[in-house]
Amino acid sequence: MNNIKRTASVSVAALGLIAAMSSAKAEIIGNVDVDWLGNDIVVEALSDPKVKGVTCHLAYFDRGLIDRLQKGNWFEDPSNSSISCRQTGPIEIGDIARDDEGETVFSERRSVIFKTLKVKRIFDQENNTLVYISHARDVQNGSAKMSMSTVPLYGADK
After folding, report:
1. Is the pTM of this model over 0.85?
2. What is the DSSP letter of 126?
3. What is the DSSP string of 81-143?
4. Taking a C-beta distance cutoff of 8 angstroms, is the pair 132, 158 a contact?
5. Can you name the residues that pair with 129 across neighbouring β-strands?
6. How far out from the chain centre does Cα 124 lie?
7. What is the residue extent of each domain of the chain?
């Protein structure tokens, strides 16, 4: 049984590493204190690795140590997030997914094992627009909390 647990742990870690390598890296650009418990709203900037000239700003809630002690849930942050994406330079689209599932641009753990904050890009070819959606991905309890932003592609190379 221990070998199965060890193999499962190694597999989960390897999948996490692969997912992290395939998505964009975010840079923290702001940190807003929201209460005396140490809870913050963190603002990160991330550039789409396959679409030059698009930058997304992602905001999410980060629980402080005092809040974690009070509530007893040490290892998990809320699913809430907000996203805004804009053209920040000439747009050059690389090899992006063009199906209705889109592809993950950014992924960040929000709990030890189960919850991940994701940003996905979907190409709306009919309307010539990139759609970015931030949402939490959970193993068993999906969340309806999401945020969406669009970037029109006027004159961009598609």
Report:
1. no
2. T
3. EEEEEEEEEEEEE-S---STT-EEEEEEESBSSSEEEEEEEEEETTTTEEEEEEEEEESS---
4. no
5. 124, 152
6. 20
7. 2-152
Tens digit of each residue's pLDDT (9 = 90 or more) over 9-51: 333 333 333 333 346 788 999 999 988 888 889 999 999 999 9
C-alpha–C-alpha distance, residues 39 and 137, integer Å: 22
**Whether 43 contacts 55, CB under 8 Å:** no
CA dist., res. 49 & res. 1, Å (int): 41
Report, in angstroms and rounded to the nearest whole number, the Rg of the chain calculated over CA atoms: 17
Q: Rounded to the nearest 10 degrees, how much is the dihedral formed by the CA atoms of 15, 16, 17, 19? A: 80
Say how far apart CA 41 and CA 30 lie, in whole Å.
8
How many Cβ atoms are within 10 Å of 8's Cβ, its own excluded?
Answer: 10
Token pair in block for residue 77: 């942050």
